[in-house]
Amino acid sequence: MITAIIEQIKKHQTIIIHRHVRPDPDAIGSQGGLREIIQAACPDKRVLITGENDSEFQYLIQMDEVRDEDFEDSLVIVCDTANQPRIEDERFHLGNTLVKIDHHPEVDTYGDLSWVDTDASSTSEMVFELFEVWEKDGAVLTDEGARLLYAGIVGDTGRFRHPNTTEKTFASAGKLIRYNFSRPDLYEAMYEKPIDLVRTEGYVLSNAEMLPSGVAYIKLTKEKLEEFGVTASMTASFVNAFSSIQGVKAWVFFVEEEEVIRVRLRSKGPAVNELASRYDGGGHPMASGASAYSWEETDALLGELDQLCRNYPEKQA
Ligand SMILES: [Mn+2]
What we know:
CATH class of the largest domain: Alpha Beta
Helix content: 25-40%
CATH topology of the largest domain: inorganic pyrophosphatase (n-terminal core)
CATH superfamily of the largest domain: inorganic pyrophosphatase (n-terminal core)
Number of domains: 2
Structural class: alpha/beta
Radius of gyration: 20 Å
Low-confidence stretches: none
Bound molecules: manganese (II) ion
CATH architecture of the largest domain: Alpha-Beta Complex
Shape: globular
Oligomer: single chain
Mean pLDDT: 95
Order of helices and strands: HEHEEEEHHHHHEEHEEHEEH
């Protein structure tokens, strides 16, 4: 599959790389890292990355201005996106050939070529694997490409703490740090937070609710967010704040937006993606997102999560 994707890249003059909406470091890192690899191997090709510029990720890379006519006869590669509705920039179907590169469980098979590896920690790790195959045929990785892929791996593994971190992840990261970029600068940019957000995190920790089943949760209303002067999407940066609560099996953030209550589900035990899929969402077994349209609906979801955790076996001593 990797060689088939490289063949497609070689065949096309214009390559446009997409990622998912509401990006994270892996979405942008894999997108930008892949661009660096292709551009270095094929300097005469036009390689564009598309999507909204998010001020939160200025330290990673700026997106390109992509016109409709750029898609003509192009190869479109979508990184880190399990299903078509989550692809940012709906023009992805305007290209000549469509390729999917992703590590999420397959919920929507799309693309003329689809490379899905759920054992990979991140799409950035997969892009590095693609590079290593292409490297035998002369491809090079720039320092900037290495920085972007490293950021993606660090982001999706929670700094190599999550169970998706494998021997291969460490091997890839070990090779990436041989390139010339500043890891301290990168970490600082990834994990620094404005004071308003730190105070919001303090509120969330102080008001965590815990059920006997091992479910921890917080409900953040629109009014509360306004009081702290933060947006709903900003609270994603500390969704793992409950992971270190003793006895926690799964946790959930309910964050009220304009039209919807955003649901962020995380787990250390029972798979939560099936539950998420029944509430207009989906994702990984241990990390999913969903949507609720009333506080009553959040209570129903919470009840189901409670049941999941009650049925989940205790760790054997
Ligand atoms: Mn990812």
